[in-house]
Design brief:
- Helix content is about 30%, strand content about 25%.
- It is α/β, with parallel strands linked by helices and about 280 residues long.
- The strands form 3 sheets. It has an 8-stranded mixed sheet, with helices on both faces.
- Helix 1 packs across helix 7.
- It is globular and about 50 Å long.
């Protein structure tokens, strides 16, 4: 299985360490899928010409993730300022979302991008902070698309209705969802035509539905250092194991095990470096 992540990339700046780590949902999922057996992985997005952008590109190369079509835009890469609580849960305390290159320049897919994207088996993308990428989905219509809607603060019913015709896998973050709302959301998303729906719920069991058939996956015990990227890692490992095999139970088990592993180190997939002052 070959996967390409399309969307935002950032660095996560851990103030207490003075270090930046590569991140961003679409990038994290591509790396996680590659680490979990995807035969090829790529990332298409934007980075600035600063230290953070150079670090992201070097990490992609180190991981064997193709970044040849990443836009290098004059300016600063997205940065999220992070702190951790006593349980290792990450807390976002700041961002440069108004000055990062991805807020100043839109990611538009040209014909060469589309041809390149269609050489992959699966696309993963997500809700973007500044929107816009959703408008590019018709250009890749007909390809399997995995979409991370994240938590409810990022989407509305109208947004779901607009994006869903292009989506094969829909993922949601719902640590505060009630059992009744989980069932309501899954049912609604299936009605929109999406065959596979997954809701991760932090320390509670994840609930997935395959054309109406429910699956529940409890978290795997882990020594938690940092939960950054655990959800993205779950998605990437799940896709790498499920897309070709269609083995839901096996894919969910592998995803839970890899997410637990990721919680054992800092950053979404490591590579912390001292931030230039």
């Amino acid at each position: 299985m070959k996967i390409i992540g399309i969307g935002d990339s950032v660095v996560d700046f851990y103030k207490d360490q003075g270090k930046i780590y590569p991140g961003g949902s679409s990038l994290n999922v591509a790396v996680a899928a590659k680490r979990n057996g995807a035969s090829a992985a790529a990332y298409l997005g934007m980075v600035g010409t600063d230290q953070a952008g150079r670090h992201i590109l070097s990490c992609l190369e180190e991981e064997g993730v193709d970044g040849r079509r990443v836009r290098r835009v004059e300016g600063v890469t997205g940065e999220a300022v992070v702190t951790l609580n006593e349980e290792g849960d990450r807390i976002f305390v700041g961002t440069n979302k108004d000055t990062r290159v991805s807020s100043l320049v839109s990611l538009t897919l040209n014909p060469a991008d589309v041809e390149y994207i269609r050489s992959y088996d699966l696309i993963h993308t997500c809700v973007s902070i500044n929107r816009g990428l959703e408008l590019e989905l018709p250009k890749i219509q007909g390809m399997p698309v995995s979409f991370d809607f994240s938590s409810p603060e990022y989407w509305t019913k109208d947004y779901l209705d607009f994006v869903s015709p292009y989506v094969t896998y829909a993922f949601f973050s719902g640590s505060d969802f009630t059992e009744a709302y989980v069932e309501e959301l899954i049912g609604y998303v299936h009605q929109l035509g999406i065959p596979v729906v997954g809701i991760t719920r932090g320390s509670a069991p994840a609930v997935f539905s395959e054309r109406g058939r429910r699956f529940v996956q409890s978290p795997v015990a882990a020594k938690v250092v940092d939960t950054m990227g655990a959800g993205d890692s779950f998605i990437g490992a799940f896709l790498a194991n499920y897309h070709a095999s269609q083995d839901m139970e096996g894919a969910l088990k592998a995803a839970a095990e890899y997410a637990a592993e990721v919680c054992g180190y800092y950053g979404a997939f490591g590579y912390g470096v001292r931030k230039d002052v």
